[in-house]
Specification:
The protein has 6 helices and no strands. The protein is an all-alpha fold and 126 residues long. The protein has 2 domains: 48 residues, no CATH class; 44 residues.
Length: 126
């Protein structure tokens, strides 16, 4: 897709093809051409690569919310995920599933990466 966009802009700028004609030939509208050309000018060919689709981060259980949840757990470790859900709803005004809180807490736990054992040499040493 990057090559197609680049070629469309090149046709207009180098081959002097009208914008409307080049855009139509490559399956874009004029407005899209101008957006693509601006992105190319601003960031070069790498700016034409599409980013990762979909959400870029949590929408409800943000760092601020999870900091608060961990604070509640630190004060009262016996709180269940259902009770934490009720506290989140009371303080932040939105509902969240208990399992979502459990998963978010698990993701925030520091990974315990046990040190690999050294490889023991076998045989005689000279």
């Amino acid at each position: 897709m990057v090559q197609v966009k680049y070629e469309m802009v090149r046709r207009v700028r180098v081959d002097k093809v009208p914008v409307a004609q080049a855009a139509r030939a490559f399956g874009y509208c004029r407005q899209a051409f101008y957006e693509i050309a601006a992105a190319l000018d601003a960031g070069g060919p790498s700016a034409l690569v599409r980013g990762k689709p979909g959400p870029k981060g949590p929408t409800k259980l943000t760092a601020q919310v999870m900091d608060r949840v961990e604070g509640w757990r630190a004060v009262e470790p016996s709180l269940t995920s259902t009770q934490l859900t009720a506290k989140v709803h009371a303080e932040f005004g939105f509902s969240v599933h208990p399992r979502s809180i459990e998963r978010a807490l698990t993701r925030r736990e520091p990974e315990s990466d046990p040190q690999p054992e050294p490889i023991a040499r076998t045989g005689s040493q000279h």
